[in-house]
Design a protein that fits this description.
Elements lengths: L1 H4 L24 H28 L5 H34 L3
Helix pairs in contact: 2-3
Length: 99
């Protein structure tokens, strides 16, 4: 009986039967990561704008949701601008270095 329990599960006739058999994803490039982050910030801003419009038309009754969405969008934009400023500052520092 012990020999039978040591046999693993049978694998189906699929190319990728298990999650562990998934082909490795290629790493995301820096530009793809940056574009994804900017797209998320843009989506937050659009959501906040939509909620403000819905508040003005009476579709949204809870002003707290609108304020939270607007604050999230504002903080995301501030963070994006701060990161951009730091990257530009680092680039300028590198360009000033003597070779």
């Amino acid at each position: 009986m012990n020999n039978i329990s040591s046999i693993g599960p049978l694998r189906p006739d699929s190319i990728l039967p298990f999650e562990t058999d998934m082909p490795p994803k290629k790493p995301e490039t820096f530009s793809e990561m940056l574009k994804g982050a900017v797209d998320k910030v843009d989506a937050m801003e659009k959501t906040a704008d939509d909620m403000m419009l819905k508040l003005a038309t009476g579709e949204v009754q809870d002003i707290h949701e609108v304020i939270i969405a607007a604050e999230k969008a504002e903080l995301a934009l501030q963070l994006t601008v701060e990161i951009r400023d730091r990257v530009i500052e680092a680039y300028q520092t590198i360009m000033r270095m003597a070779m």
